[in-house]
Amino acid sequence: MTEISSDVIRGYNDTMILYLLLKEPSYGYEISKQIKSLSESKYNIKETTLYSAFSRMEKNGYVESFSQEAEGTGKKRTYYRITEAGMNYYKEKCEEWILTKEVVERFIEENYNGNY
Amino acid sequence: MTEISSDVIRGYNDTMILYLLLKEPSYGYEISKQIKSLSESKYNIKETTLYSAFSRMEKNGYVESFSQEAEGTGKKRTYYRITEAGMNYYKEKCEEWILTKEVVERFIEENYNGNY
DNA sequence: TATATTTACTACGACAGACAAAGTATGACA
DNA sequence: TGTCATACTTTGTCTGTCGTAGTAAATATA
User: Fold this and answer.
1) Which of A37, A50, B78, B102 has the most Cβ atoms closer than 10 angstroms to its Cβ?
2) Does B110 map to a domain?
3) Is strand D in 7 Å reach of the CB of A28?
4) Which domain, by its residues, includes A48?
5) What is the pLDDT of residue B3?
6) pLDDT tens by residue, A78-93
7) B73 vs chain A: nearest CA distance in angstroms?
8) What is the DSSP letter of A103?
């Protein structure tokens, strides 16, 4: 079965994460589950990819982290919330996506059957 | 203006090149011009990216190179033609694209205006 | 005729994002 | 008691992109 290659999604992992953070602050494990379910298991972000995205985005000011205990258990989690800059970045990425899609599709044959 | 980032197109440069080679064998400079014109100047592949794509794809058996003199002038060019394997690869990439597009678009707000 | 630009590449090195591997630590469940 | 799910961190490797630089012939321009 066709798999989504990391070279394609590369550059959109951040966007996916930010999209989910727009709804509410969240943390690694949950984000990872949400990406899986929203994509209907078509895409599974790797742990290391996810956490390195968090730290990169925090460094860039797109997200802010805070520590919070899980309800019930007193287990601590690192939550992330999106910042104003993160929202702007997300917006830019959405616009870029439209453009990218248009361009790539010029080079894609939707139902290429090997004939030419 | 929004620019297409290399991290997004990454992994689709090969596909674009193969698409053009499906029509007829071609060479670096021409491919680069064609990508520019087909994308309406929205995407300009870098020379180094292009030539390294050629050699990678030749190594992978997706294209074959041959030397040919330009008409008129006796100037030699390195032409590339797509192979059977290249066509299959192109086909796979097209299928992957459909999937990728579906997934990414779950995380894109077409007209996000910064409100949430 | 001199010079700039376009054409047609090659070589080298750096960088960033993805990710494999491995480790740590807690709580739930059977 | 041991396995599984949760919730990460650290380290190091790989790949594709691309900046910089250089070569060289053909063509356009002044």
Assistant:
1) A50
2) no
3) yes
4) 6-105
5) 72
6) 999 999 999 999 999 9
7) 30
8) H
Partners of A9 on chain B (C-beta within 8 Å) are: 100, 103-104
Chain-chain contact of A114 with B9 (C-beta, under 8 angstroms): no
Q: Please tell me whether residue B34 adopts helix, strand or coil conformation.
A: helix
**Radius of gyration of chain A, Cα coordinates, nearest whole angstrom:** 17
CATH number at residue B29: 1.10.10.10
Q: Which 30-49 residues of chain A touch chain B by CB within 8 A?
A: 38-39, 42-43
Total domain count for chain B? 1
Q: Would A28 be classed as within a structural domain?
A: yes
pTM metric for this prediction: 0.91
Instruction: Kindly state the tokens that stand for A93.
Output: 């990425």
CA-based nearest residue in chain A for residue B7:
A11
What per-residue confidence (pLDDT) applies to A75? Answer: 76
Beta-carbon pairs below 8 A across chains A and B: 124
pLDDT on residue B86: 97
SS3 content of chain A, % helix, strand, coil (to 5): 55, 15, 35
Contact state of A42 with B102 under an 8 Å Cβ cutoff: yes
More confident residue, B1 or B24: B24
Per mean pLDDT, which range of A1-10, A30-39, B50-59 is the poorest? A1-10
Q: Would the Cβ of B42 be found within 7 angstroms of any atom in strand D?
A: no
Put simply, the answer to whether A10 touches B8 (Cβ < 8 Å) is yes
Q: Between the CA of B42 and the C1' of D29, what is the distance in angstroms?
A: 29
Q: How many helices (H) and strands (E) does chain A have?
A: 5, 3
